[in-house]
Amino acid sequence: ADLAGFIRGLPKAELHLHIEGSLEPEQMFEFARRNRVDLSYKSVEEIRAAYEFSRLQDFLDIYYAGAQVLLTEADFRDLALAYFRRAHADGVVHAEIFFDPQTHTDRGVPFATVADGLLAGMAAAERDFGMTSKLILCFLRHLDEDAAFATLKDAEPYLDRIEAVGLDSSEVGHPPSKFARVFAAAAAQGLKRVAHAGEEGPPAYVHEALDLLQVDRIDHGNRALEDPALVERLVASNMTLTVCPLSNHKLCVTPDLRAHPLKRMLALGLRATVNSDDPAYFGGYVGANYTALIEPIGLTRDDVLTLARNSFTGSFLPQDAIDKHL
Ligand code: ADE
Ligand code: ZN
């Protein structure tokens, strides 16, 4: 009867979440105060009012500015734990979280401060909420290949605690090919690979992510639907797409949610999942990303069951752990 209640109660995994994108305005003020960082905003209301985006870059500019308040290991731990608390309330039992080390190392925050803080938050979430999680290191694609290699080097002491590398930030003009070598190096070190592709960029970028980065998942992938041969390839390879409905809406990838492709993706046999991307900026955590589609595209209980199943089969959990969740 109550689909929103059913969604909340159903165990789910989240596979596309930028931890810096879970920084709520209230927390931004708190961290700015305790770290004595100057914020250009005067109030939480003023921050929220600035969250009007017409494309990805509008959001990224504000997102990188917001992250400047994060300085200490405690900040990263508190940020992660606050995310896990909200995700837990939405029925998320496993999360694979992205972090953008370059956003922090480029302003003098050591890689270890970021990683140790996030890992402490992940350990606390397991202890307090029984949630499991994995860490995915994302390279910023607007920066160059050398910077990505330097970041992979920074990560070396942590490679046993990092599951995968990813690729995010400004997509158009920064194709996956730019990072083919660093992804190959990451693969050689035993890391899995994911990449944002086909959010604003063309289907050719999705092909490149598959061919040149050898990705295990595609983040977003919306524009793959423009290329029937690509769709066929994604279906045949059981490729997981980490779709983010409220992000798509707020960044005008899908200005009208009635045109959201999620249901079409499922009908085509694509392994689509529902995720929150940057929940503090886009208006909701995983639960809200499911419920936002109920009315606009007629998401059903069966669709929700499929999506939750896909979230586990598409995860990097070992097969026996996946089986336990299905
Ligand atoms: N960084 C954080 N969120 C992102 C998104 N949706 N696309 C690209 N880069 C991002
Ligand atoms: Zn993203």
Automatic annotation (TrEMBL):
Catalytic activity: adenine + H2O + H(+) = hypoxanthine + NH4(+)
SUPFAM superfamilies: Metallo-dependent hydrolases (SSF51556)
UniProt keywords, alphabetically: Hydrolase, Metal-binding, Nucleotide metabolism, Zinc
Highest taxon of source: Bacteria
Uppermost EC category: hydrolase
Domain Adenosine deaminase, first and last residues per copy: 11-326
Site label Important for catalytic activity, positions: 220
Binding site for substrate: 278
GO MF: adenine deaminase activity; zinc ion binding
Stated role: Catalyzes the hydrolytic deamination of adenine to hypoxanthine. Plays an important role in the purine salvage pathway and in nitrogen catabolism.
Name of the molecule in the record: Adenine deaminase
UniProt source species: Roseiterribacter gracilis
